[in-house]
Input
Amino acid sequence: MSDTLQMVSRRHRLPDTLVRVVSYSATRLVALFFTAVVGIFVTILVANMGGYVDEIKRAEIRETVTLQVFTDPKIMRLPAEARERRMREMIRIGEERLGLDRPFLSRSLFYLRDALVLRLGFAERMNSDSGSRLVRNIILERLPPTLLLFVSADLLLFFASMFMALSLARQYGSVLDRIVIALAPTSAAPAWFFGIFLILIFAAVLRWLPFGGMVDVPPPDRSVAYAASVLKHMVLPVGAIVFSTIFLAVYSWRTFFLIFSSEDYVEVARAKGLPTRVIERRYILRPTLPTIITGFALGLIGIWTGAVVLETVFNWPGLGQALFRAVGLYDIPVILGATIIYAYLLAITVFILDILYALVDPRVKLSREGRP
Output
Protein backbone atom coordinates (compact mmCIF):
# COMPACT_ATOMS: atom_id res chain seq x y z
CA MET A 1 0.00 0.00 0.00
CA SER A 2 2.78 2.44 0.91
CA ASP A 3 4.62 1.65 -2.35
CA THR A 4 1.49 2.45 -4.33
CA LEU A 5 1.08 5.77 -2.53
CA GLN A 6 4.71 6.66 -3.24
CA MET A 7 4.27 5.90 -6.95
CA VAL A 8 1.16 8.06 -7.14
CA SER A 9 2.94 10.86 -5.29
CA ARG A 10 5.84 10.72 -7.74
CA ARG A 11 3.48 10.87 -10.71
CA HIS A 12 1.89 14.00 -9.27
CA ARG A 13 5.25 15.61 -8.62
CA LEU A 14 6.61 15.05 -12.15
CA PRO A 15 4.24 17.51 -13.92
CA ASP A 16 4.82 20.06 -11.16
CA THR A 17 8.60 19.76 -11.53
CA LEU A 18 8.34 19.98 -15.31
CA VAL A 19 6.27 23.18 -15.04
CA ARG A 20 8.88 24.71 -12.72
CA VAL A 21 11.75 23.83 -15.06
CA VAL A 22 9.93 25.16 -18.13
CA SER A 23 8.93 28.35 -16.29
CA TYR A 24 12.46 28.94 -15.05
CA SER A 25 13.98 28.18 -18.47
CA ALA A 26 11.58 30.55 -20.25
CA THR A 27 12.30 33.33 -17.76
CA ARG A 28 16.06 32.86 -18.17
CA LEU A 29 15.78 32.82 -21.97
CA VAL A 30 13.82 36.09 -22.00
CA ALA A 31 16.28 37.74 -19.60
CA LEU A 32 19.29 36.57 -21.61
CA PHE A 33 17.66 37.70 -24.86
CA PHE A 34 17.12 41.24 -23.57
CA THR A 35 20.68 41.27 -22.22
CA ALA A 36 21.98 40.31 -25.67
CA VAL A 37 19.81 42.99 -27.30
CA VAL A 38 21.20 45.70 -25.00
CA GLY A 39 24.78 44.49 -25.54
CA ILE A 40 24.42 44.44 -29.33
CA PHE A 41 22.79 47.89 -29.44
CA VAL A 42 25.53 49.39 -27.26
CA THR A 43 28.11 47.81 -29.56
CA ILE A 44 26.42 49.44 -32.56
CA LEU A 45 26.62 52.85 -30.89
CA VAL A 46 30.23 52.37 -29.79
CA ALA A 47 31.37 50.96 -33.14
CA ASN A 48 29.99 54.06 -34.87
CA MET A 49 31.46 56.34 -32.17
CA GLY A 50 28.08 57.97 -31.75
CA GLY A 51 27.94 58.94 -35.44
CA TYR A 52 31.56 60.12 -35.83
CA VAL A 53 32.37 57.22 -38.17
CA ASP A 54 29.55 58.46 -40.44
CA GLU A 55 31.38 61.75 -40.86
CA ILE A 56 34.59 59.88 -41.74
CA LYS A 57 32.72 57.86 -44.37
CA ARG A 58 31.09 60.96 -45.85
CA ALA A 59 34.50 62.62 -46.13
CA GLU A 60 35.92 59.53 -47.83
CA ILE A 61 33.01 59.49 -50.30
CA ARG A 62 33.53 63.16 -51.15
CA GLU A 63 37.27 62.62 -51.60
CA THR A 64 36.73 59.58 -53.83
CA VAL A 65 34.13 61.37 -55.96
CA THR A 66 36.39 64.42 -56.33
CA LEU A 67 39.26 62.26 -57.55
CA GLN A 68 36.98 60.46 -60.00
CA VAL A 69 35.69 63.75 -61.38
CA PHE A 70 39.11 65.34 -61.85
CA THR A 71 40.50 62.19 -63.52
CA ASP A 72 37.54 61.76 -65.90
CA PRO A 73 37.96 63.94 -69.03
CA LYS A 74 34.27 63.60 -69.97
CA ILE A 75 33.09 65.08 -66.69
CA MET A 76 35.74 67.80 -66.77
CA ARG A 77 34.41 69.00 -70.17
CA LEU A 78 31.00 69.66 -68.65
CA PRO A 79 30.06 73.20 -67.57
CA ALA A 80 30.84 74.04 -63.95
CA GLU A 81 27.17 73.90 -62.88
CA ALA A 82 26.59 70.51 -64.58
CA ARG A 83 29.82 69.19 -63.09
CA GLU A 84 28.70 70.20 -59.60
CA ARG A 85 25.33 68.50 -60.11
CA ARG A 86 27.13 65.33 -61.26
CA MET A 87 29.38 65.39 -58.19
CA ARG A 88 26.41 65.86 -55.84
CA GLU A 89 24.59 62.98 -57.55
CA MET A 90 27.62 60.67 -57.19
CA ILE A 91 28.00 61.64 -53.53
CA ARG A 92 24.28 60.99 -52.94
CA ILE A 93 24.52 57.52 -54.52
CA GLY A 94 27.59 56.70 -52.42
CA GLU A 95 25.86 57.79 -49.20
CA GLU A 96 22.71 55.82 -50.06
CA ARG A 97 24.80 52.72 -50.71
CA LEU A 98 26.16 52.92 -47.15
CA GLY A 99 22.84 54.02 -45.64
CA LEU A 100 24.20 57.45 -44.69
CA ASP A 101 21.10 59.18 -46.05
CA ARG A 102 19.12 57.98 -43.01
CA PRO A 103 19.43 59.38 -39.43
CA PHE A 104 22.01 57.65 -37.26
CA LEU A 105 19.54 56.45 -34.62
CA SER A 106 17.11 55.09 -37.21
CA ARG A 107 19.92 53.26 -39.00
CA SER A 108 21.15 51.84 -35.68
CA LEU A 109 17.70 50.34 -35.02
CA PHE A 110 17.73 48.75 -38.48
CA TYR A 111 21.20 47.35 -37.71
CA LEU A 112 19.84 45.92 -34.45
CA ARG A 113 16.86 44.29 -36.18
CA ASP A 114 19.05 42.65 -38.81
CA ALA A 115 21.60 41.59 -36.21
CA LEU A 116 19.04 39.78 -34.06
CA VAL A 117 17.98 37.59 -37.01
CA LEU A 118 21.62 37.12 -38.12
CA ARG A 119 21.24 39.12 -41.34
CA LEU A 120 24.82 40.33 -41.19
CA GLY A 121 24.87 41.90 -44.64
CA PHE A 122 27.94 42.87 -46.63
CA ALA A 123 31.31 44.12 -45.43
CA GLU A 124 32.15 47.66 -46.43
CA ARG A 125 35.89 47.24 -46.96
CA MET A 126 36.90 43.65 -46.24
CA ASN A 127 36.72 40.52 -48.37
CA SER A 128 36.96 36.85 -47.50
CA ASP A 129 39.84 34.83 -48.93
CA SER A 130 37.47 33.61 -51.62
CA GLY A 131 36.62 37.22 -52.56
CA SER A 132 33.15 37.32 -50.97
CA ARG A 133 31.91 40.50 -49.29
CA LEU A 134 29.30 38.68 -47.20
CA VAL A 135 30.02 39.10 -43.48
CA ARG A 136 28.71 35.58 -42.91
CA ASN A 137 31.35 34.14 -45.26
CA ILE A 138 34.12 36.19 -43.65
CA ILE A 139 33.16 34.92 -40.18
CA LEU A 140 32.67 31.30 -41.25
CA GLU A 141 36.01 31.34 -43.04
CA ARG A 142 37.95 32.67 -40.05
CA LEU A 143 36.06 30.94 -37.23
CA PRO A 144 37.47 27.37 -37.63
CA PRO A 145 41.15 28.38 -37.11
CA THR A 146 40.17 30.35 -34.01
CA LEU A 147 38.16 27.45 -32.59
CA LEU A 148 40.96 25.00 -33.39
CA LEU A 149 43.54 27.09 -31.53
CA PHE A 150 41.60 28.19 -28.48
CA VAL A 151 39.46 25.10 -27.91
CA SER A 152 42.60 22.94 -28.05
CA ALA A 153 44.32 25.25 -25.58
CA ASP A 154 41.30 25.33 -23.28
CA LEU A 155 40.93 21.54 -23.26
CA LEU A 156 44.63 21.13 -22.47
CA LEU A 157 44.38 23.80 -19.77
CA PHE A 158 41.24 22.22 -18.25
CA PHE A 159 42.61 18.70 -17.83
CA ALA A 160 46.12 19.79 -16.88
CA SER A 161 44.78 22.23 -14.26
CA MET A 162 42.43 19.67 -12.72
CA PHE A 163 45.15 17.00 -12.53
CA MET A 164 47.68 19.42 -11.01
CA ALA A 165 45.12 20.91 -8.59
CA LEU A 166 44.14 17.49 -7.24
CA SER A 167 47.78 16.57 -6.91
CA LEU A 168 48.59 19.76 -4.99
CA ALA A 169 45.54 19.30 -2.72
CA ARG A 170 47.09 16.00 -1.63
CA GLN A 171 50.48 17.71 -1.11
CA TYR A 172 49.33 20.82 0.78
CA GLY A 173 52.29 22.85 2.01
CA SER A 174 54.87 21.04 -0.14
CA VAL A 175 57.61 22.80 -2.12
CA LEU A 176 55.66 22.33 -5.37
CA ASP A 177 52.55 23.78 -3.73
CA ARG A 178 54.48 26.89 -2.66
CA ILE A 179 55.99 27.29 -6.13
CA VAL A 180 52.54 27.26 -7.77
CA ILE A 181 51.25 29.81 -5.23
CA ALA A 182 54.24 32.04 -5.95
CA LEU A 183 53.70 31.79 -9.72
CA ALA A 184 49.92 32.48 -9.57
CA PRO A 185 50.34 36.29 -9.96
CA THR A 186 52.01 35.72 -13.36
CA SER A 187 48.53 35.05 -14.75
CA ALA A 188 47.88 38.78 -14.54
CA ALA A 189 49.84 39.13 -17.79
CA PRO A 190 47.87 38.36 -20.99
CA ALA A 191 48.69 35.45 -23.27
CA TRP A 192 50.18 37.63 -26.01
CA PHE A 193 52.73 38.98 -23.52
CA PHE A 194 54.08 35.48 -22.93
CA GLY A 195 53.72 34.81 -26.65
CA ILE A 196 56.28 37.49 -27.49
CA PHE A 197 58.85 35.90 -25.16
CA LEU A 198 58.13 32.43 -26.54
CA ILE A 199 58.66 33.70 -30.08
CA LEU A 200 61.95 35.33 -29.09
CA ILE A 201 63.23 32.19 -27.36
CA PHE A 202 61.97 29.29 -29.49
CA ALA A 203 61.68 30.96 -32.91
CA ALA A 204 64.29 33.74 -33.03
CA VAL A 205 67.07 32.32 -30.84
CA LEU A 206 66.71 28.52 -30.87
CA ARG A 207 64.90 28.35 -34.25
CA TRP A 208 62.99 25.25 -33.17
CA LEU A 209 59.52 26.53 -34.07
CA PRO A 210 58.03 28.93 -36.65
CA PHE A 211 57.42 32.60 -35.87
CA GLY A 212 53.74 32.48 -36.76
CA GLY A 213 51.12 31.51 -39.27
CA MET A 214 48.98 28.39 -39.34
CA VAL A 215 50.84 26.20 -41.81
CA ASP A 216 54.09 26.11 -43.77
CA VAL A 217 54.38 28.03 -47.04
CA PRO A 218 53.75 26.37 -49.45
CA PRO A 219 51.33 24.08 -47.58
CA PRO A 220 52.14 20.35 -47.67
CA ASP A 221 50.12 18.29 -50.15
CA ARG A 222 49.58 15.22 -47.99
CA SER A 223 46.99 15.42 -45.23
CA VAL A 224 49.28 13.88 -42.59
CA ALA A 225 52.08 16.33 -43.37
CA TYR A 226 49.56 19.20 -43.38
CA ALA A 227 48.22 18.22 -39.95
CA ALA A 228 51.79 17.92 -38.60
CA SER A 229 52.58 21.41 -39.93
CA VAL A 230 49.47 22.86 -38.25
CA LEU A 231 50.38 21.19 -34.95
CA LYS A 232 53.90 22.60 -35.16
CA HIS A 233 52.53 26.11 -35.68
CA MET A 234 50.09 25.66 -32.76
CA VAL A 235 52.79 24.91 -30.18
CA LEU A 236 53.76 28.51 -29.39
CA PRO A 237 50.28 30.12 -29.29
CA VAL A 238 48.81 27.22 -27.30
CA GLY A 239 51.80 27.37 -24.96
CA ALA A 240 51.26 31.11 -24.47
CA ILE A 241 47.57 30.61 -23.60
CA VAL A 242 48.24 27.75 -21.20
CA PHE A 243 51.23 29.41 -19.51
CA SER A 244 49.29 32.65 -18.97
CA THR A 245 46.44 30.93 -17.13
CA ILE A 246 47.47 27.58 -15.69
CA PHE A 247 49.06 28.73 -12.42
CA LEU A 248 46.05 30.83 -11.37
CA ALA A 249 43.63 28.05 -12.43
CA VAL A 250 45.57 25.43 -10.47
CA TYR A 251 45.75 27.70 -7.42
CA SER A 252 41.99 28.43 -7.55
CA TRP A 253 40.88 24.84 -8.02
CA ARG A 254 43.38 23.55 -5.50
CA THR A 255 41.84 25.97 -2.96
CA PHE A 256 38.32 24.70 -3.73
CA PHE A 257 39.48 21.08 -3.39
CA LEU A 258 41.09 21.85 -0.02
CA ILE A 259 37.92 23.56 1.25
CA PHE A 260 35.66 20.67 0.34
CA SER A 261 38.15 18.03 1.50
CA SER A 262 37.80 19.40 5.05
CA GLU A 263 34.00 19.00 5.18
CA ASP A 264 32.46 16.68 7.77
CA TYR A 265 31.03 14.26 5.21
CA VAL A 266 34.51 13.79 3.74
CA GLU A 267 35.87 12.94 7.20
CA VAL A 268 33.02 10.43 7.66
CA ALA A 269 33.87 8.85 4.29
CA ARG A 270 37.51 8.56 5.33
CA ALA A 271 36.47 7.00 8.65
CA LYS A 272 34.45 4.40 6.74
CA GLY A 273 37.63 3.40 4.94
CA LEU A 274 36.64 4.49 1.44
CA PRO A 275 39.56 4.69 -1.05
CA THR A 276 41.05 8.12 -1.67
CA ARG A 277 40.11 8.08 -5.36
CA VAL A 278 36.48 7.36 -4.52
CA ILE A 279 36.38 10.15 -1.94
CA GLU A 280 37.88 12.64 -4.39
CA ARG A 281 35.46 11.66 -7.14
CA ARG A 282 32.26 11.54 -5.06
CA TYR A 283 32.75 14.01 -2.25
CA ILE A 284 35.28 16.57 -3.49
CA LEU A 285 34.95 16.81 -7.29
CA ARG A 286 31.14 16.67 -7.31
CA PRO A 287 30.53 19.82 -5.18
CA THR A 288 33.16 21.75 -7.17
CA LEU A 289 31.73 20.75 -10.57
CA PRO A 290 29.61 23.94 -10.95
CA THR A 291 32.71 26.10 -10.49
CA ILE A 292 34.78 23.88 -12.79
CA ILE A 293 32.07 23.83 -15.48
CA THR A 294 31.67 27.61 -15.29
CA GLY A 295 35.40 28.17 -15.67
CA PHE A 296 35.65 25.80 -18.60
CA ALA A 297 32.59 27.13 -20.46
CA LEU A 298 33.41 30.81 -19.96
CA GLY A 299 36.99 30.02 -20.95
CA LEU A 300 35.67 28.79 -24.28
CA ILE A 301 33.64 31.97 -24.70
CA GLY A 302 36.73 33.98 -23.74
CA ILE A 303 38.34 33.00 -27.04
CA TRP A 304 36.57 35.96 -28.63
CA THR A 305 38.18 38.46 -26.29
CA GLY A 306 41.65 36.93 -26.24
CA ALA A 307 41.85 36.13 -29.92
CA VAL A 308 42.32 39.65 -31.27
CA VAL A 309 45.80 40.49 -29.99
CA LEU A 310 47.12 36.93 -29.70
CA GLU A 311 46.23 36.03 -33.29
CA THR A 312 47.79 39.26 -34.48
CA VAL A 313 51.03 38.53 -32.61
CA PHE A 314 51.25 35.00 -34.04
CA ASN A 315 49.79 35.95 -37.46
CA TRP A 316 47.15 33.25 -36.93
CA PRO A 317 44.46 33.56 -39.67
CA GLY A 318 41.47 33.45 -37.35
CA LEU A 319 38.49 35.59 -36.49
CA GLY A 320 40.48 37.66 -34.00
CA GLN A 321 42.84 38.86 -36.70
CA ALA A 322 39.87 39.61 -38.98
CA LEU A 323 38.23 41.61 -36.17
CA PHE A 324 41.47 43.54 -35.64
CA ARG A 325 41.51 44.47 -39.32
CA ALA A 326 37.83 45.42 -39.22
CA VAL A 327 38.41 47.82 -36.32
CA GLY A 328 41.29 49.46 -38.17
CA LEU A 329 39.19 49.83 -41.33
CA TYR A 330 36.01 50.98 -39.50
CA ASP A 331 34.18 48.05 -41.12
CA ILE A 332 31.14 48.14 -38.85
CA PRO A 333 29.25 45.15 -40.34
CA VAL A 334 32.19 42.82 -39.62
CA ILE A 335 32.62 44.24 -36.10
CA LEU A 336 28.92 43.79 -35.40
CA GLY A 337 28.91 40.29 -36.89
CA ALA A 338 31.67 39.12 -34.56
CA THR A 339 30.00 40.80 -31.56
CA ILE A 340 26.61 39.26 -32.38
CA ILE A 341 28.04 35.75 -32.55
CA TYR A 342 29.85 36.37 -29.26
CA ALA A 343 26.68 37.64 -27.58
CA TYR A 344 24.63 34.66 -28.71
CA LEU A 345 27.34 32.19 -27.71
CA LEU A 346 27.61 33.80 -24.28
CA ALA A 347 23.82 33.74 -23.77
CA ILE A 348 23.55 30.09 -24.85
CA THR A 349 26.46 29.12 -22.61
CA VAL A 350 24.96 30.83 -19.55
CA PHE A 351 21.60 29.15 -20.24
CA ILE A 352 23.20 25.70 -20.56
CA LEU A 353 25.16 26.35 -17.36
CA ASP A 354 21.92 26.98 -15.47
CA ILE A 355 20.62 23.60 -16.60
CA LEU A 356 23.89 21.84 -15.82
CA TYR A 357 23.93 23.29 -12.30
CA ALA A 358 20.70 21.46 -11.51
CA LEU A 359 22.13 18.22 -12.92
CA VAL A 360 25.55 18.18 -11.28
CA ASP A 361 24.79 19.98 -8.01
CA PRO A 362 22.02 18.43 -5.90
CA ARG A 363 21.93 21.56 -3.73
CA VAL A 364 20.33 23.61 -6.57
CA LYS A 365 16.54 23.39 -6.42
CA LEU A 366 13.70 25.32 -8.04
CA SER A 367 10.88 26.86 -6.05
CA ARG A 368 7.25 26.76 -7.15
CA GLU A 369 7.69 30.19 -8.70
CA GLY A 370 10.53 28.86 -10.89
CA ARG A 371 13.27 30.62 -8.95
CA PRO A 372 16.50 28.80 -7.96
Remarks:
- The mean pLDDT is 79.
